[in-house]
Design brief:
- By secondary structure, the chain is α+β, with helices and mostly antiparallel strands.
- It folds into three domains: 8-80, no CATH class; 92-197, no CATH class; 204-248, no CATH class.
- The protein contains seven helices and twelve strands.
- The chain has helices at 13-18, 23-27, 31-38, 92-99, 132-142, 150-157, 230-248; strands spanning 46-51, 57-68, 74-80, 104-108, 111-120, 127-131, 162-165, 170-175, 183-187, 204-206, 210-214, 220-224.
- The chain has a three-stranded antiparallel sheet with strand order 1-2-3.
- The longest helix is centred in the last third of the chain and has 19 residues, at 230-248.
- The two termini are 26 Å apart.
């Protein structure tokens, strides 16, 4: 049995349900994002709904993660999806790089003198930034685990990816501020780099109670089983046939 940072009984489903995320919906998530949540990492962008003071229902999209409080209980931090990404403090060239999903070496949005690595969270449109010494320390720690050349380190430091061999396979290493350490390591060459973020998530992800559907704009939407469309039913049948064929092999 796999060990997680949080166990099932610690998840504050009471809080999540207030925002429209039921226990069934969370348990129906694909394995990779569910594992991330239980390890204290960010969820994908998921749909939520809340009522305002006038009683109107407001729908939105947000990421969340579980955090431990000082008294030992577990709470939820939300990272809402912004409709507009605030990039006014960056040059036009930097904005193009950021919107293309790249990490840049620049400054904090609110402090032009604070040197940082900067990246847009594709699931929330929020600008993420980490001071360069923090990432630099993590890069230096990699030097003891991998045979990184000066050129490799230079590539990583400017937001590119370094491709190395660990003696058994090819690895791609680069900065990704969506990761807990700010450093991401993937097996394979750079062509796989952008694809690996969606690993473990198909267009339709079926659970016990419903289906999580990957959105073209990022994040997931949820459809209960009783509301399946013909497209979802067809995808479910293909998934059943695929699983049956795999079992017979």
């Amino acid at each position: 049995m796999q060990e997680y940072e949080f166990n099932e009984e610690q998840v504050p489903y009471g809080i999540l349900s207030q925002y429209g995320l039921t226990r069934e919906m969370v348990e129906d998530l694909p394995e990779a994002p569910y594992r991330d949540i239980m390890n204290g990492l960010l969820s994908p962008a998921l749909p939520i709904s809340v009522k305002d003071d006038a009683g109107n229902t407001i729908s939105a999209s947000t990421r969340f993660r579980l955090v431990k409080t000082d008294d030992g209980s577990v709470d939820v931090l939300f990272y809402p999806r912004f409709t507009r990404c605030e990039l006014d403090s960056y040059s036009e060239a930097e904005q193009i790089e950021l919107r293309a999903g790249r990490v840049i070496l620049s400054h904090a949005p609110d402090d032009p003198d604070r040197k940082c690595f900067v990246q847009i969270d594709p699931d929330t449109n929020q600008v993420m930034y980490v001071p360069t010494p923090v990432i630099g320390r993590n890069i230096r720690s990699l030097m003891g685990n991998f045979d990184l050349t000066t050129d490799d380190i230079t590539l990583i430091q400017i937001g590119e990816q370094a491709v190395i061999s660990d003696g058994k396979s090819i690895l791609t290493i680069g900065i990704d501020l969506c990761e807990r350490t700010g450093i991401r390591i993937e097996r394979g060459k750079t062509a796989k780099w952008s694809r690996e973020r969606d690993a473990g998530m198909d267009s339709f992800n079926f659970g016990l109670y419903g289906c999580w559907v990957k959105q073209a704009t990022g994040g997931l939407s949820y459809v209960p089983e009783e509301e399946y469309t013909e497209e979802i039913l067809a995808a479910q049948q293909k998934a059943v046939e695929r699983n049956t064929a795999n079992i017979k092999r």
